[in-house]
Amino acid sequence: MVPSNSVLRAQVNGAGPTGALAALALADAGWQVSISDPLPAASLLERNRAYAFTHSSQRLLAQLGLWEELQGAMVPFRSLQLLDLAIDQQVPFGLVDLGRQLAAAPGAAVGWVAQHRPLLGVLLERLAAHPAISLELGVGATADPAHPPDRSAADLSVADLIVAADGPHSPSREALGIGVLQRPYRQSCLTALVQLRGSADDQAWELLRPEGPFAVLPLGAGQFQLVWSAPAQRCRQLESLGDAAFLDALSGALPDQLQPDALLDDPRAFPVSLLLARRLHRGRTVLVGESGHRCHPVGGQGLNLCWRDVAQLHRLARRVRAGRLAVERLPAAYGLRRWPDLLLTLLATDLLVRVFSNRAPLLLPLRRFALLLLAHLAPLRQLSLAAMTHGPCQLLRR
After folding, report:
1. Same topology for domains 9-75+113-180+273-357 and 186-272, yes or no?
2. pLDDT for 338-379, tens place per residue?
3. Residue 391 pLDDT grade (very low, low, confident, very high; cuts 50, 70, 90)
């Protein structure tokens, strides 16, 4: 156990949204934290995309005292339209499907959307200002994740815990010899920012199309972030189109009520794969976020799943600080507690993509029946939304 006056030290590798939040969570739990990233702040901030946030992420931000500051960057959506374009079946999710307590809360929302730059900008500012955190960006990668470059100011060269949050190609994970199970999807994802007509500013869309899921996320003032899944060759073609041709292609992919007016940034395509590390810890190191897992972005689960890793790490770090858990047992406890959520979420997202990204004649009646049940049975919608907003393990607790 840890004496109350001892210093607990953690090293976080990676300062993206997950690594930054993990460092803040550990500092909130009473640890001294060093966080580093080989990229400078400007490069970390330049990623041009948006994230959908669920209530599991909102709770964590509130616990860490970050919600009020980030709320200005969060655009709430109060309805989510699920639309299967192959069978023309629609299911609306609204505040009532959240349950009485969440639906009655001030500023109630089904979820929130935030762009990468303002989100990470706030997290980096908090890291730089926190007295218990040493932040080093653009310092280059280290071959040994357990022994980062010398940081004499914080004396964190030997850490009680190493957090690998350095992405799906994690150098930390590779240095530890932890293998992965990985299956690339035939689809890629293309992101773009557009001006749209036909949707309320507080309405999000999840379109199920034969070529892949298509999310339309509101950012306010008629602007929407698109996350368009399609075969890799199709995404590369879309990425190379001029503005007018891209808008024509987009108009053909969207339902009739959504009309694109303008393309506001350059579309960017990226590959999509299912990834799961064979283990989530080794020695003093834990894998957090995409260093340990990656799923298809259908349903906006990716970053929320990563931040549920952080929430579990926060709970365990507080137990260590309070003397209720030996620090050397934290990595194994983290891995044990994260497996159910990870396995169920990866299975659910993979199943959704397999079932709905086709026109298989045998599946179409089953899809129609399933969506009719969702549309007409409020308890089923509430269970589905609970799985999306709190994680699928929520269903096991009911």
Report:
1. no
2. 999 999 999 999 999 999 988 899 899 999 999 999 999 999
3. confident
Look up tokens 């694109």; give the residue: 260
For the entire predicted model, the pTM comes to 0.92
Q: Where are the domains of the chain?
A: 9-75+113-180+273-357, 186-272
Phi first, then psi, for residue 57 (nearest 5°) are: -75, -40
What is the fold, at CATH topology level, of the domain defined by 186-272?
Answer: D-Amino Acid Oxidase; Chain A, domain 2 (3.30.9)
List pLDDT tens digits, range 265-317. Answer: 999 999 999 999 999 999 999 999 999 999 998 888 999 999 999 999 999 99
Taking every pair of Cα atoms in the chain, the longest distance, rounded to a whole number of angstroms, is 66
Element (H, E) at 272: strand 268-277
What is the torsional sign of CA 362, 368, 370, 371?
A: positive
Q: Under a CB-based contact definition with an 8 Å cutoff, are residues 95 and 110 in contact? A: yes
Across 324-344, b (16+ Cβ under 10 Å) vs e yields: ebebeebbebbbebbeebbeb
Give the model's confidence band at 390: pLDDT under 50 very low, under 70 low, under 90 confident, else very high. Answer: confident
According to DSSP, residue 8 is labeled P
Q: What percent of the chain clears pLDDT 90, i.e. is strictly above it?
A: 84
SS3 for 270? strand
Among the listed residues 391, 349, 337, 329, the one whose alpha carbon sits nearest the alpha carbon of residue 160: 329
Question: For 9-75+113-180+273-357, which CATH superfamily applies?
Answer: FAD/NAD(P)-binding domain (3.50.50.60)
Q: Are 176 and 242 in contact (CB under 8 A)?
A: no
Residue pLDDT, tens place only, 92-129: 999 999 988 888 888 899 999 999 999 999 999 999 99
Residue with tokens 């137990």: 319
How high is the pLDDT of residue 394? Answer: 63
Q: In Å, what is the CA distance from 243 to each residue of 108, 226, 257, 260, 265? A: 36, 15, 21, 11, 9
Give 5: exposed, middle or buried? Use CB within 10 Å, 0-12, 13-18, 19+.
Answer: exposed
Residue whose structure tokens are 């730089």: 128
